[in-house]
Amino acid sequence: MSQEPGELWPLVAARIRSDQGWSLQPVARLGRSHDDRRTWLAEGRPGAVIVKASTNQFALERAPWAAEALALLRARGVPVPVPLWWSRLDERWWALVQPQLPGEPLDELDEPVLEQLLALVELQAGLGPEGGGWDVSWWIDKVVFEGWEGWWDGAEQAAPQTARRLRALLEPATGYRLPVADLVHGDFGVGNLLVQEGTVSGIVDWDHLGIGSRALDLTSLLFDWQRLRLAHSSSVTDEGGRRLTARIVEIAGDHGLRSTVCYAAIARLALSRQRGEPDQVETWRRVTESILDSCT
């Protein structure tokens, strides 16, 4: 977290003040520094809010649908931030304001927390609003079977032996596409989960919200369960990996498990390598190997 709001903030604050009459004061910059997005914690008349600026034009086009889908999830009992406002800033940037949810980032997956998360993911079942949703299952198909994004190449350079094992795991699922039946977070890891006094109080960063199979979000949890188990075994429930794997298979079948594990693994390996994070590459290599051992 950085205290410097950045050169984009005056443009964002001026547009919010013009459109909504809110005079927001930046409290802190959040997250990593990126050329194509910024996130701030701010305070003002709406209270404590998260302000996001992005250059992703596809996300701007999907913003009305995403807001409706998040409102639907909120009504089902999922603790999500429903956007308060969004607008284009200029030809490149657009911005969004959403309430800050209570709680602290989750750093363990013990049995009570895992039970809550499994129940919350079940509330994502069903497509929600018609039209406008990004087809996450289509995207996974393109990445794992057609090599889009170059993540297979990146994974093979980062961890050649692990990538070969992933190829072998995927082979029986060739041609399979995950169902399009649910609302999908797309990055359902512990870093995007908040907890307060033992209760999951927030699921944040729905930037990749789309339609597909909620099995993908359970696979993200599986990867974090293995990561936490390898780092601090006392921070996870012993049966967590087995339960998550079994639920993924129940939802999407054996081929679905193979597809989502490969997608999650090559994304983590390739992106960690791309960012120049060798320690992260090694972490995700070990995690992937552990998951592969349990799957074969």
Which properties best describe this structure?
disordered N terminus; 3-stranded antiparallel beta sheet; single chain; alpha+beta
Structure overview:
The chain has 9 helices and 11 strands. α7 packs across α8. The N and C termini lie far apart (40 Å).
**Uncertain spans, ≥5 residues at pLDDT below 50?**
1-5
Helix count, per DSSP?
Answer: 9
Order of secondary-structure elements: HEEEHEEEHEHHHEEEEHHH
What fraction strand? Answer: 15-25%
Q: Name the helicity range.
A: 40-55%
Largest sheet: spatial strand order: 1-2-3-5-4
Class based on secondary structure composition and strand pairing:
alpha+beta
Topology:
Blueprint: H1 9-20, E1 25-29, E2 37-44, E3 47-54, H2 57-76, E4 85-88, E5 94-99, E6 104-105, H3 111-122, E7 134-135, H4 136-146, H5 151-158, H6 160-170, E8 182-184, E9 193-196, E10 199-203, E11 210-212, H7 215-231, H8 240-274, H9 278-295
Parallel strand pairs: 7-11
Antiparallel strand pairs: 1-2, 2-3, 3-5, 4-5, 6-9, 8-11, 9-10
Helix pairs in contact: 4-8, 5-6, 5-8, 6-8, 6-9, 7-8, 7-9, 8-9
Please outline what is shown here.
The chain is of the alpha+beta class and 296 residues long. Helices cover 49% and strands 17% of the residues. The longest helix is centred in the C-terminal third of the chain and has 35 residues, at 240-274.
